[in-house]
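Margin note from the TA: students keep mixing up input and output lines. Inputs are the sequences; the output is the structure of the whole complex. Example:
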Amino acid sequence: MEPLRNYADQEVSEQVKVTGEPQRKTKVRKRRSWIAGLLLLIPILLFVFGFFIVPMLYILYLSFISTDNLNGADAVYSLQNYITLFTDSYYLSSMWLTVKISLYSVLVSLILGYPIALTMAKSSPKIRGYITLLIASPLLVSIVVRNFGWYLLLLPNGTINQFLMNIGLIKKPLNLLFSELGVVIGLSNAYLPFMVLAIATSLYNIDPSLEKAGAILGASPMRSFLTITLPLSLPGIVSGCVLVFSLSMSAYVTPSLMGGANVPMMPVVIYDQINTLLKWTFGSALSYVLLGITLLSVFFFTRAFEKSKFREVFR
Amino acid sequence: MKKIITLISILFLIVLSACGAPNPQKAGETASTNTSKDGEKSITIAGNGGVIEKTIRDVIAPKFKEETGITVNYVPGLSGEILSKVELQKNAPQIDIAIFVPTDVHRANDKGLTGKVDEANVPNMKNVDSKFVAVEGAGAPVFGLVIAPAYNTESFKEKGLKPIESWNDLPSGQYEGRTAFVDITNDWGFNTLYALAMTNGGGTDNVEPGIEKAKELAGYSTTFYKNSTQVMPAIQQGAADVTVMGSYVIGDLALSGVPIKMAVPKEGVPIQAFSGALVKNAPNEKEALEFINYLISKESQALISEQGFYPVVEGLELPEKFQESIGLKDTDKTFKPDPAVFAEIRAEWSDRWTKEVVPEIGKLLK
């Protein structure tokens, strides 16, 4: 007698066969794409590991050696470098000066950069291209050359002071060089492109119909800007501020050339400790504190915006 | 999957091994010379940029290659920076000869970073004037100089100012802030502080009078330049009339048409030389010593003095074209600083300068 066939079971196993094959294929495809992604990432991972993580770990190791000897047998491990740093008012004031000047540079870049970014967003692609080229062109010139250019302009008998005196605005030269003002001018000039491009990218993504809708509902251009454009461009503003702040905190050439000894920003102090006094270990501790303060400032700044009433635009 | 992971691991290990430092050579072991495919030998020198680089690269190196077939590669940098590099490369040196200021010759020697240089392996050392030697046996003096005040002769004449006769003439309201002094991080700045200390009854063992005078100097200055290369444009542009710098720079500026003259204060000026130090376990020791010997030959020193450096070998004079601006008369007082002591006090003096002197900048300017 022919056994009864369980057609229901057969159907189920057929279904498994039919649906199981593509699932396996999808899995294999996913795995392959994951491996391909990993392979593509390997060069950058190696690069970051070899040229960033390893040197940074070495610098961290050095910062805990309290003698000037780098790798000698008499190296003493302690927190002495950090204690000196936090108990010496000179280094604390240098750190504060660095933060202050970086904040000023962010502010100046933002005030100068936002209108430019807004103009770019409202312009035709052709004009936008020209403005982008104009804004990015200083990046094509070495920062040393740019600083020497500023240096000659800002000298007491330089072009700017001569011009202001010739038109009778000032009687004696302004102290534009070797002051916090000079360094802020230099840093803002150097990092303005980063601010403009970050904000412009954010502005490009704003749906133009939102402003049109606002206008139809009776909002003035100013109100439309304050309630639509500005809040929606906040991610760009935050990115630009973070970029300019981080770059200013670690800037060496501009504070050194434009500030002289009068503006001892932390990177200049670190350079002097390591290259002039050969105090690698103390310089390393200074570097890590500078890095820590930069990271903390950036973290709290972005966090404050992400938790603010505008948090929706950051999602 | 396993194959891919194995492949990645192998690749990773290959790259890591390539990143590793080459095996250090043992002391005394004959180093292999950098030899290119066509058999050309080469050595690497690290030294100051500017006039020193130009002199070696354009004047000395081509003649040396012509005579020996050895190519000279030059890596520009400041003396302190080069010392940092040499120290970091201690186990696997990449530099054969480092050009140092006297204090750094001592510091390098003290840290065991220099090889022996004396009459035994560099025969021309016998002709060298001892006042230029920084540390016996550690490097050969090559580029002679004094660190001295200098002033704009035309500007001084116009304003009726008398030439600088003492280091104590430097802090003065008469110059109206038109000064360009470098910070203590630079050798010119450090020597200025020492000269101020010495002039006012102090010395290496007592910096107090120097610090007090330096505060006055800061008060009448708009800044202390962090980078010595900024001083030249300040003088050229007419933004500063008074400075302290190396004699070779003063000579160079004068030759380019700037109305500048070196002043030798009655207390004297420090005389010294940039020295060529053999880096310990240098990859091309034999060729490096040959080049050091060549640098202090009479022929090379004659060429070097044409660039504004005092010859370090006896029997040669500074060329006539530099006599007016930086020529030293027999009556001019010079002294030889002790680099060992300078190296010892450098950190403490620098610390006091940054904390006590720098904050006084510009306070006495109207």
